[in-house]
Amino acid sequence: MSTKEDNILQILSDTVELSEVNEFLADERVERALLKLTSMLANPELSPNKAPRHILECQALSAEFAIKATYYAGIGKNEPMAREKKNLYYTLKENFSLLSDALKYLAKAGM
Fold first, then answer.
1. If you write DSSP's letter for every residue of the chain in order, what string do you get?
2. Which of 38, 39, 54, 97 has the fewest CB atoms lying closer than 10 Å?
3. pTM of the entire predicted model
4. Among 93, 86, 92, residue whose Cα is nearest residue 71
């Protein structure tokens, strides 16, 4: 199998796992974030002039995920599966912030 086919198979495998995360959290913003992520993975050739919009959205998603993680760490800690939700939201927060940072480099390089 070629490297391109291996990459496609890996993306499909990751997508199944991401779908399970989406189903577990049942959160519209998580679904939006995971769709954005899989879209970028499938087509990493992002135009630098579109980067600012993606930066803003990724940073806003990161902020929302941080608030939800903090909620599950404190106020909602007694809710069912709170620890798992907290951990997933912290992971989403951190990585969408990192994605935003990476997109900033793309925007700077494109100017």
1. --HHHHHHHHHHHHHHHHHHHHHHH--HHHHHHHHHHHHHHH-----GGGHHHHHHHHHHHHHHHHHHHHHHHTTTTTSTTHHHHHHHHHHHHHHHHHHHHHHHHHHHHH-
2. 39
3. 0.83
4. 86
* Residues 6 or more apart whose Cβ sits within 8 Å of residue 57: 36
- Residue identified by tokens 């494109």 is 110
- Confirm if 23 and 88 have CB atoms less than 8 A apart: no
* pLDDT tens sequence across 32-79: 999 888 888 877 788 888 888 999 999 999 999 999 999 999 999 999
φ, ψ dihedrals at 21, nearest 5°? -60, -45
| Token pair belonging to 31 | 């679904």
Is residue 101 within 8 Å of residue 93, measured between CB atoms?
no
Contact 94, 33 (CB under 8 A): no
